[in-house]
Design goal:
288 residues, alpha/beta, 2-enoyl-CoA Hydratase, Chain A, domain 1, 2 domains, 11 helices, 47% helix, globular
């Protein structure tokens, strides 16, 4: 376990399965996932995509159990977040595409869709997702940053959306770029092969908090504590409702939102939250 991920006093550390292209370590209610190909600036291989999905599914499966994961933290090894897709995988897919029989699945499309499914899984998870962005944040890494609920960056972070300059399309991350940045900014970055430094990414809203490399861990600890002070069921229900709100007029959600609120108010979490407030104590889910 990294020194920056040492479990606080009285917080359990749970060993996670061994992976090849990521590391996954659960510290208390936080699953630390590290993209672990530092020699390639954590370029996203098909193996990494599969391992990220496996780790997320395993974390989601702990819901309702003692020691459940409540936050997924994404970070890159070696001072970089992610340099985008692994070009070796793409070259292999291109070779298979040239050799495929008529009517068989298109290998390049399959590779691209696998990454798209990963983005959707992290965007739709009921768990809180935090991304720590350092060094290179490019292509698919840019997309992962956009699906995080909270994105923190230090001043080494450099963002690039190079697809159109390489003659291809930022296909799977396009919806998440528009969601995070708005249509105008997303389109501008796409048609210019966009480059952003950390300050510009923060100003644009891609990054929620920008700090120095020395202060990054302190900021991360604060954000994790803030999330863990919130009820996990309420966080999941809120994320789901906000996702619906992106596509529906507010007037269409009044009844549904009222039902969601009533369910939460009458739940064990709702009762505990109000009781803790009246008794001026922390609720039982505030583990840190």
């Amino acid at each position: 376990m990294d020194s920056a991920q040492v479990a606080p006093k009285n917080v359990a550390y749970v060993p996670a399965p061994d992976y090849g292209h990521i590391r996954a370590e659960q510290v208390g209610a936080v699953l630390h996932i590290t993209l672990n190909r530092p020699e390639a600036r954590n370029a996203m291989s098909l193996q990494m995509v599969a391992e990220l999905q496996q780790a997320l599914r395993a974390a989601e499966a702990t819901a309702g159990t003692e020691g459940a994961v409540r936050v997924v933290l994404l970070r890159g090894a070696g001072g970089h977040f992610c340099a985008g897709a692994d070009l070796k995988d793409m070259a292999g897919a291109r070779m298979r595409s040239m050799q495929r029989e008529a009517g068989s699945p298109e290998p390049i499309a399959e590779v691209n869709a696998a990454f798209g499914r990963l983005c959707v899984a992290f965007a739709q998870t009921p768990l809180a997702v935090v991304a720590v962005l350092e060094g290179t944040v490019m292509g698919g890494g840019f997309g992962l940053a956009c699906v995080a609920d909270v994105a923190l960056a230090d001043d080494t972070a450099s963002f690039r959306l190079p697809e159109t300059s390489l003659g291809v399309v930022p296909a799977q991350i396009a919806p998440f770029l528009v969601e995070r940045l708005g249509y105008s900014q997303a389109k501008r970055l796409a048609v210019t092969g966009g480059r952003l430094d950390a300050a510009a990414a923060h100003c644009m809203g891609l990054v929620h908090e920008l700090c120095s490399a020395d202060d990054l861990q302190q900021a991360l600890n604060r954000v994790l504590n803030e999330i863990l002070a919130c009820a996990p069921g309420a966080v999941a229900a809120t994320k789901a409702l906000m996702q619906q709100a992106r596509f529906s007029p507010a007037s269409d959600l009044v009844g549904h939102a009222a039902a969601v609120f009533a369910n939460s108010a009458q739940s064990a979490e709702g009762l505990e939250g109000m009781t803790a407030f009246l008794q001026k104590r922390k609720p039982t889910w505030a583990v840190i």
